Fold this sequence. Notes:
Blueprint: E1 2-8, E2 20-29, H1 48-52
Antiparallel strand pairs: 1-2
Amino acid sequence: MAFFTVVSNHGSYRATSHEFKLVFLHRTTVVAVDEDVIPKTCFNMFYFSKLLNMTQDYNFLVDVIGLLTSVGDVTP
């Protein structure tokens, strides 16, 4: 990767709790590598009930990974 910068990861809308983040510039170039040197699994999993019961604001974004189990008619 070329033409990027590393900055402190502070403020709103943090995607991770990591201390630093990469900022892509207009000229940033990224090249794929053949090796698996970067882990593919970097998620912290929680039960949905725990997410619903969170009592404090977290300083990074939370997302829900779902699974479609059926399709049916829309009911009002």
